[in-house]
Amino acid sequence: MTVPIPMIGVLPAKRTGPSHWWHGFIAMLRWEITNMRLLLPLTVVVQVLFGAGFVLGIGLFFEDIPSRAALFLSTGATTITLIMVGLVMGPQLVAQQKLEGTYDYMWSLPVPRSAATTAWITLNMIFAIPGMVVALLVASWRYGVDLEISFAIVPAVLLTLLTATLLGYALAHAVTKPEVTLLLTQVLIFGIVGFSPINYPQDNLPGWLAELHEYLPFLPMATVVRGGLTQGLVSNVVQSYVVLSAWGLIALGLVAGSLGRRR
Amino acid sequence: MEVAPGEVYGLLGPNGAGKSTLVKQVIGLLKPDSGRITLGSFDLVEDPDAARQLCSYLPQAQMPIDSFKAREAIDIAGMIRGGPAAEVKRRREEMIEALEIGEWRDVLGARLSGGVKRLVGFAMVTVWPGRVIILDEPTNDVDPLRRRRLWEQIRRMGSEGAAVLLVTHNVMEAEKSVDRLAIINEGKLIAEGTPSSLKADDRGRLRLQLMLHPGNSTPELAPLVRDHVRVGNNLVTVIDEDAAGAGIVWAQDLLARGVIEEYALGATTLEDVYVRLTGHKSESER
User: Is B274 exposed, middle or buried (0-12, 13-18, 19+ CB in 10 A)?
Assistant: First the structure.
């Protein structure tokens, strides 16, 4: 004797409201955690190696690294691990979903899209932390830099990660073609590592590029993180928070716009 | 186009006809340029959130469950669809048993064959179903035995009151399993009705199928041939029932002259209607 299948029959009312949102958020967290568990150990190892490798690799440019450069490098590498997770790895995962054709299923699920997005962003941010911590530890061990970590590191890391992740999310979802997303992430890696004043002072860049970076989010990200890790290395922290928050809001707007989008 | 609760409605058409596009518009993944899609009092084009709550969707691509054990994938999918945990578990076991996939209950998706993965996907979509169940090529890769189990479950969804929207290009399967169907070609609805009503034009006729020797051109057709279509080396002709004898004589002659390799005479099928309307062979005859 089979029991009737639930839910078939009457047309129900549409579910809305905070409890529907929260249920969707928790369900999607469970989905994403289960989904990542095979790749997660590998992903964390790659991030840790990336953070450590970056710190050690850049140090090879110098025979004897000046202490100010060492401080720039240590804090810069830390910032870069955060940016990479949000702005590069995140969009690459989404592009992968699109290429495999699994994106359609994920977007057909009956949860509020903002809940699914929040779940994804939350996990992305959590997974960025190990790489950042290891980069910092390796840097202080290798170069013996004197870090003076303050509580300001908490909002600095959160805002940097959130903005990078939101920008990455917007990049992945607003760009329809996954091939283009993958290409753009390559360009971003190149631009951020090579031509952003994250690992070196802004003055080292040509004037116009240094000027441009006043308005881009990468320098402010490095500045607020440095503000939390050191004393007196950077001065314009408040202004950086303002610029970075503006980018965060722009990215949030882009993400919100891409949520309801149908092709 | 209208689909009633309890109906299994087939969408047939060749690749690229627009079947998947249509169902993606129903579930709110794509936005139609014009027109309306309604479900009861809900306008699904205006309200894609409602569409996603009221419809369950099995896409044509495989489910992203490489990291999931089969039972976990079904459970979490049921939870996402809003089912209470205990009820979802009960339904999960029911589905696993009905589809005969128990031996893979604790196997990771990455290790499942395409067919089993497809069945797990079906269970994910129907463990806590919506009012409309959209299945895009559900039987792809599934072995014949479990294909039968799958059809039983699809029929059951219908008999319990869901509207099932079934995308397929396997006409033979559709003929046996759907209540009504639409044939779509190049984005247009070209025929709609029950399988037998679509065959009504062919009542009193037979199909005489001729397999030409590879490379041979179409032979001159006997006057008794009412209709014909050639796909590859397969020439399907339609003749009147009372011309069956003459048809066999004609085919025997073609065989004796080496024009054809073999022939077969039989009742007309939905396949013939489909081929006539679209000019394509369906998957079931390839």
Answer: buried
Q: How far apart are CA B229 and CA B236, in angstroms?
A: 5
Classify residue A181 as left (phi > 0), alpha (psi -120 to 50) or beta. Answer: alpha
The CATH class, in words, for B8-197 is alpha beta
Is the ipTM, as predicted for this complex, more than 0.85? Answer: no
Neighbours of B250 (CB within 10 A): 22
* Distance between CA atoms of residues A207 and A209, nearest Å: 6
CA angle A49/A50/A52 to nearest 5° reads: 65
Q: How far apart are alpha carbons B134 and B165 in whole angstroms?
A: 5
Report the predicted TM-score, pTM, of the whole model to 2 decimal places.
0.85
- The domain locations on chain B are 8-197, 200-268
**Can B8-197 and B200-268 be said to share one CATH topology?**
no
In chain B, the residue whose alpha carbon lies closest to the alpha carbon of A1 is: B94
Distances (CA, A) of A2 to A5, B95, B101, B145: 9, 11, 18, 21
Q: Which residues of A touch B (CB under 8 A)?
A: 2-9, 11-12, 14-15, 23-24, 27-28, 30-31, 34-39, 97, 100-102, 104-112, 260, 262-263
Q: What is the pLDDT of residues B17-60, one digit of tens each?
A: 899 999 999 999 899 999 999 998 899 999 999 999 999 999 99
pLDDT in tens, B202-224: 788 898 999 998 888 888 888 98
Rounded CA-CA distance B258/A67 in Å is 91
Q: How far apart are CA B216 and CA B260, in angstroms?
A: 8
CATH of domain B200-268: 3.30.70
Per-residue pLDDT averaged across B228-247, rounded?
87
Helix intervals (H) in A37-66: 40-59
> Strand order of the sheet with strand B205-212?
B225-231, B234-240, B205-212, B260-267
Residue B129 sits at the chain A interface (C-beta within 8 Å):
yes
What tokens does A58 get? 């850049």
